[in-house]
Structures are given as structure tokens and as C-alpha cells.
Amino acid sequence: MLNPKDLELCERLVQAATKLGAHSADAMMGRSTEFDVTVRDGRVEDVSRSTDKTIGLRVFLEGAEGRKLGFITTSVVPNTADDVESVVRRALGMAEAAAASKWHGLPDKADVEAPLDVKMLDLYDPRVAELTPEWAAQQALTMEKVAKGAEPRIHAFGSVGAGAGHGGVAYVNSNGFSGAYEGSHVSAHCHAVTLSDGNRQSDGWSEAQRHLKDLLPPEDIARKAAQRVGRAVGAKPGPMGKYPVIYEAPVALSILGHISGAVSGDLVAKGATFMASLVGQQVAPAFFNLSDDSTIPRALGSSPFDGEGLRSRVNKILDGGVLQGFLCDTFTARRLGRKSTGSARRGAGSLPHIGVGNIRLQPGTESLEQLAKRVGRGLLVTRMLGHGPDLVTGDYSRGAGGMWIENGELAYPVEEMTVAGNLVDMLKGIAAVGSDLLVRGGTASPSIMFQELTVSSRG
């Protein structure tokens, strides 16, 4: 819960920093309380709780070769004027010993705006703050029981649990910005394992929301987990060759993660992304519209301002399939000769870095069943193994499992498959996106159909 005095403390730190010689400064105060509970075989297995309170202060010293950065964090609240001065002097000392950079510093004053309306974003649910580990245990025990009842072949559970948390952020900088907000989150997950004729399969379902009433009931989560692991029973390696491939929505989320990672301004500055030279080019079909939107009410990735005090906004990444630009914080924007996109992410105990709010892919009009009919013969990927692509080259290869499609219908489960391609070609070869939009965490995606990928297996 946010303390009304947190903003006041941040203001005192920033004022003291500029008074004692800093060219500019910012301060962030973060508070959080959360818990997680897991169960196994009808009993509580683990309960974890944490309460955190962190203050972070950045100071910048002006020099002939640029600005020097000093950063300090503490969990001890500086109450007196002497305490505040002590923290500031430690930060200034770190800055004096640091190397200078012409890209360091706060956002320009001309870019500072009032933050978004916190009430409009609706990020905090007081009901979540009232939840207890006992509530989480009951949710988890219900999921375990319902999943076993829905799928008798479940042999064990990889993990079943629930949790919740809430907290607040206060931020002030010397360019005149001041803002604070509270947020909450609640989650539940059920991951099951089947064992049938020596064939072991695992799958599950998870949910996370800002508000308690938006969370699926534990019975529904359990049934989804049971259905997913049940359809994988008897999986075997499938055909090899070049086939149409559908990434089911839970798996398609990873593709959006790869794209958003590839448009990080930091990677562009380092020449470490295949997207670096593609701004303004058609990299995907015209129906492929992807954005990073930190302004969606109740979304887990929303906030009224970014980690440097810039107002949250919508950043179009792919509009009509055309790459619009890169995501930048202030440091990287200056390095690239651009403007920050309000994409600085940080906690009170860390320096700003480039990140995303809510990645959203605009859904299409066809159901997953309709996409399968379009495929005819190919692969529906429902789970993946391994790491992501090489973002320098775009080369992509991951282990996969799912369902083989014959005559437009789901025919049988497959495993030990590998799906390979290059993200440049994969994006251009997207044949359709489904209507089955799935929101998980800060990412939302429908199923994605690729016209042709290389599919291999051990079979």
C-alpha cells in the first residue's frame, strides 16, 4: 500500500540532491506485499510471503564530457534532514567516480506531461489486498481436486498454486514531474502430468489479473488444464517436411515476445537485432497490427507513467504490417538521435531499462477450427521447449508438441517435434491470425497461422 508520505520523501531527496550540486535527480519509492501458496496431493506444500520497501535515488553531475550517473538504493527510510543528506551524498560520491556519457540524464523538460488518470486505469483492487494465504490454499486445493476428476489419467501435478500481491510506487524528478499509483495482482495456475503406457505428458493453464473478479474460477482453470494435458496423451513424433503451422494462442504469445524484444532500441544501438534496418518496411501482412499499450484499464502492464516520469502511451510497433520504429528509454533515444517512447521500466531498486507495457496483437475473424480447416495438413503447436531465436540473425528453432492436422481436423497428438525458420520469413509468411484472443500477463495474442515452416521430428 502506498504511504502518503512517500511522495514527500522523494521530493525531499530530489531537492536535497540539486541543492548539494546535482545537475538533475530523480527518486522512486516502492512498496509491495505478496504471497504464493502451492499444494501437492491434497496438502499445502509451500507458503511464501514477502514485504518489500525500497527507495532509489539517481543523481547526475554535469561535466565537460557529459553527465555522470550515481545511483543508490536503500530499504531504510531516511526520516531526518541529516539522513536525507547522507543518502544524497553517497549517491553524489558514486557519480563523481563514474564515467561520463553525453546520453545520461532525465527526459527533456519539454517532454514532461501530467501522468494518466490513475482512477481511469483502475489498477488497484482493495479486495486483493484483503486476500490471505488461506484463500490461495483453498483455490489451489480446489484446482487439484477438479483437475483429477476431469482427467483420470492425471498421474501427478507439476505445480498447482495461487497468489496475490499489492503495492505502490511514488516517483519525483527535478524536471517538475511528480506522480504515484497503487496496483494489485492475483494469480492461479494448474500444471498437470499424465502417465499412460509409459508415455508422460504435461500441460496446464494459468491466469493473472489486477482484479479478483476478473480471475477465472479455480474450477475453470482446472478443467482447462485437464483438457490440455488429456489431449496430449499418446503423443508420438509426427511427419517431417515443410507444412503450414498454427501456433495456438498460448504459444503465439512467445512470438510477440520475440518481436517486441527485436525492436528494443538498446539492441538496435548495439547492432544486435535483425529488425535494425527495417523501419518503414512491410515486414508482415497488412492485417498484422501489433502495439505496446500501457494505457489499458486493469491490464497488468499498465501504469500512469514510465520509469522516468514520461506519460504512458500507445506505441504502434507494426501498423498494417509496416515496422513503425523502436522502443526507447531516454538514454537509448539520445544515443539513436530519437525521442523516448515512454518505454523505461524500473523498480525502485533498479536503473531504468527498455521494456514493454501491454503487447497487443489485433485479432482476426476466424476461429481456431477455421484456421485448422485452412491448413488441411500440418501442425498445431500447443506447447514449446527451448530458447527463443537468435535476434541478431532472426534464425529460429524450437522444440514443439501439439496436434497433427489431417483433412482440416485435429487427428492425433504429437511430441518431440522441432519447428524452424527465420523470423523475417516467418513474419512475411503469416497467413492469418485467429479470433481467439488470449490475454496472459502483459501480452495478448490470438492463434497465428504460418503458411509454411520446416517441421522435423525423431520419427
- How much β-strand is present in the residues? 35-45%
Class by alpha and beta content? alpha+beta
Rounded to an integer in angstroms, the radius of gyration calculated over CA atoms is 24 Å
In percent, how helical is the residue content? 10-25%
Mean pLDDT: 96
Gross morphology is globular
Low confidence ranges = none
Separation, N- and C-terminal Cα atoms: 55 Å
The count of β-strands is 21
- Total helices: the number is 11
Spatial order of strands in the largest sheet: 4-3-2-1-5-6-7
Can you walk through the features of this model?
Strand 1 (24-40) and strand 2 (43-63) form a beta hairpin. It is globular and about 75 Å long. It has helices spanning 5-19, 81-96, 118-121, 126-129, 133-150, 218-230, 249-262, 265-270, 330-336, 368-375, 423-428; strands spanning 24-40, 43-63, 66-74, 100-101, 154-173, 178-196, 199-209, 241-247, 290-293, 314-319, 322-323, 344-345, 353-354, 359-361, 378-385, 395-406, 409-422, 430-433, 438-440, 443-445, 448-457. The termini are far apart. It is an alpha+beta fold and 459 residues long. The chain is 24% helix and 39% strand. It contains eleven helices and 21 strands. Strands 4-3-2-1-5-6-7 form a seven-stranded antiparallel β-sheet. A six-stranded mixed β-sheet has the order 11-10-9-14-20-19, with helices on one face. Strands 8-15-16-17-21 form a five-stranded mixed β-barrel.
